[in-house]
Amino acid sequence: MDKIKAPKGTKDIFTPDIEKWQYLEEKIKEVFNRFYFSEIRTPIFEHTELFSRGIGDETEVVSKEMYTFKDRKERSLTLRPENTASVVRAAIENKLFDEHFPLRYYYIGPMFRYERPQKGRQRQFHQFGVEVFNDPSAEVDAEVILVAYKLLIDLGINTINVEINSVGCKNCRPDYLKLLSEKAEMESEKLCSDCQRKTKTNPLRIFDCKNKGCIEVADNLPKITDNLCQDCNTHFVKLKESLNLFEVPFFVNTRLVRGLDYYTKTAFEITSEALGSQNAILGGGRYNDLIKQLGGNEISGIGFAAGMERVILHLDKIEKKNKLKVIIVYHSENEKTASLKIAKRCWDLGLNAFIDYGAGNMKKQFKKGDRIEADFAFVIGKDEVVDSMISIKNMKTREQEKIKNEDLEKWIKKNI
Ligand SMILES: [Zn+2]
Ligand SMILES: [Zn+2]
Fold first, then answer.
1. Which residues contact 300 (CB under 8 A, 6 or more apart)?
2. CA gyration radius, the chain
3. Which of 122, 218, 324, 392 has CA 20 to 30 A from 210's CA?
4. Ligand 1 centre from 96 Cα, in Å?
5. Sign of CA dihedral 46, 78, 114, 291
6. What residue ranges define each of the domains in the chain, with the CATH number in brackets?
7. Poorest-confidence range of 117-121, 148-152, 170-174, 273-277?
8. Which residue in 149, 144, 119 sits closest to 130, CA to CA?
């Protein structure tokens, strides 16, 4: 029979890679808790409308990349392509918004997009991120960027750049877009055909074009940071001051406009050059109009999302927890019962212990001990059973000692 394979763009994750995933997840929880974020878990699938309304029908994600299907009652459902819309939906539905208090959530989990798989990009991919609602201050924007920065630095990823921009608001962006469109049209003959079209429909997207001619034109187009309203400008100045205060190195990238139209004011990305070309590890921004768009009140929001596959590509060495590993080695079937009792005591005392029930001779068992990278072998032979002792062999130094059964707890305390 044909073997069944995992669907294209999905991956099985197991040891040793799984250790990096677990390490990352632990760090995420530890760092985010420090900043008073609490975890939120939303469903893997939602009503399709949530994403078409929340992300926008015309975006690439919604129009081309979603896994949408009908359930048995003909309802249109979609595997979540990102988590912000779901978190906003959950907060509205569960009445989590408190007008007197900011809400801070973080999430970790799989997302789904029908894209061409490549290094660090899967169809089932994983993201973590944070969302802060009901705090419109520039300081919290800086704190959200600090959390992201701190986590990556704590993970030992030092090759990162923090890029920030302001994308304006509904008061100043329309005027800027008009100006941008006019100026871009004057340079129209230097632009690629795609960008020529964008000058009328969505001139901001010209900044995303990788075409050399387009980049040159884009460099001389009016900058959004020179065309902000008073409110957006004050916010941007405060953001930069706060980032300096938090000691986050950053630079302003006026080409950074982010893919989603719901962003207002702050937009940011953290990129890395470590893997050759410059890659975005995470991105986010402020979205003050999104919550209303999804049926909530006028409540501000800011957040970011990071690709876990990309972060993991940057993790080479991880701190391994120094938990003692032990293999129980027994001489023959006659010593098996005594060995099982020792194994049970090890587990009760919190040791990582392994015993191979169909092991065969002691040499084979020691080999298995090497394979699981055991620190010690607890050896149970005929004498040990008679005298209620355990022979302990250090698997690295090959040193041996013998202890009384009842002293096992004392020994563990001394050796952990
Ligand atoms: Zn504005
Ligand atoms: Zn172009």
1. 133, 134, 135, 136, 286, 288, 291
2. 28
3. 122
4. 28
5. negative
6. 17-172+228-313 (3.30.930.10), 325-415 (3.40.50.800)
7. 273-277
8. 144
CA of 227 to the centre of ligand 1 (A): 9
Distance, CA 78 to ligand 2 centroid (Å)? 32
Residues 6+ apart with CB under 8 A from 185: 199, 200
Tell me how far the alpha carbon of residue 266 lies from the centroid of ligand 1, in angstroms. Answer: 11
Ligand minimally distant from the alpha carbon of residue 266 = 1
The strands making up 45-47's β-sheet, listed across from edge to edge, are: 45-47, 76-79, 67-70
Residues in the 5 Å CB sphere of ion ligand 2:
192, 195, 209, 211, 214
CA–centroid distance, 174 to ligand 1, in Å, is: 10
DSSP string computed for 123-160: SEEEEEEEEEES---HHHHHHHHHHHHHHHHHTT---E
253-283: pLDDT as tens digits: 998 886 666 789 999 999 998 777 668 899 9
**Ligand (nearest to CA of 225):** 1
Closest C-alpha among 151, 205, 200 to residue 30: 151
Q: What is the pLDDT of residues 279-302, one digit of tens each?
A: 889 999 999 888 998 898 889 999
CA 199 / ligand 2 centre spacing (Å): 10
pTM (predicted TM-score): 0.89
Distance CA 209, CA 276 (A): 20
Which tokens is 295 given? Answer: 């049926």
Note the ligand closest to the C-alpha atom of 175: 1
Cis preceding-peptide flag for 16 (omega within 30 of 0)? yes
Looking up tokens 């001051």, which residue turns up?
Answer: 241
Query: Closest Cα partner for 221 from 165, 172, 179?
Result: 179
Compute, in angstroms, the gap from residue 246 CA to the centroid of ligand 1: 25
Whole-angstrom distance between the N-terminal and C-terminal Cα of the chain? 50
Q: How far is CA 53 from CA 15, 189, 262, 263, 319, in A?
A: 40, 35, 11, 14, 42
Count how many Cα atoms sit within 13 Å of the Cα of residue 6 in the half-sphere of its side chain: 8
